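Forgive a beginner's question, but would it be possible to get a protein, spelled out as residues, together with the matching structure tokens, please?
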Amino acid sequence: MQEEQLIESIDKLLLEALDKRASDIHFEPYQHSYRIRMRIDGVLHDMLTPSPPLALAKQITARLKIMSKLNIAEHRLPQDGQLVIDRYAMRIATLPVMNGEKIVLRVMDNHESELTINDLGLTDADLLTFRQILDYPQGLILVTGPTGSGKTVTLYSGLKRLNKTERNICSVEDPIEIPLEGINQTAINLKAGLTFAIVLRALLRQDPDVMMIGEIRDRETAEIAIQAAQTGHLVLSTLHTNSSVEAITRLNQMGIENYLLSSSLKLVIAQRLVRKLCPHCKVVAREQIKLDNEQVPHYVASGCLRCIGGYKGRVGLYELLVITPDMQKQILANQVVLPANMTSLKMAGQKLVKQGMTTLAELNRVLGDT
């Protein structure tokens, strides 16, 4: 294939993936084939155009490296960088594998920077709670969930609400995912020795009102976050835990004492993203299902030209654990019992199934068959 043709076909492929709302594009060399896949709404799919022959693998890798200003002569070490196509920025990560180099492009959330706290999909009651706690002068707000569950977007939408002239907002991230005007964002740089803890200590000397920590990964970061939350700062961060109550356990395991947690923690939001049924082709299932001890009708995915496999877009499931005075006592006594009126992730998901927004199969895929 001529170089011009190759450049044109790679550009076309990337634009096709962007048109399909892909969040990641995978280029994978195998022994007898070359596969290109894209992740849409959290699920990997093959590209609609046939994958190129294996003989072109090295040329494609070289072209993507040139676009990202990476070292095309280096095949033995992983590399990462950034490229821009049609106003979309993408992060590139290369990895040496058995049959060459695997490349993953991550589409940066260019459009999601427009999201506000009202667009998250929180219920009216949960939205009110989130707004009220964001107005607290100090304390720790945690958003938890696995990778790709929308935690960053929730944090940024909270920061946007707080982004006023009278507040100094600083963030430390790995990497900076959504640039926001009016917020002082710092990316960690492990090669230069710039860790979360080092940046956080420096931020505390920058007279901040609000601090956002991309992720609490270790004891040192957790300690600084708790200390900041107790000394007049509002701190927002994420943790990788499956439920809101597990965040308390995880911080305990990192060595944070219960008395510090009970006084500094204000809110834990656990969240997931489930795919929404395509409104054009969803069909009512023949059989009803049992939810909350009642038989209810539900929809199933079918698939049409306007969607991918019967789904289009995603919606958030949220579980809010508010640290009330009663919860503080429970944390101190190391006996946390979830409030009876709290909506769990499963309950939030079942409500969407009843409303015909998603399917039971999708809920089980995301939450596990609980």
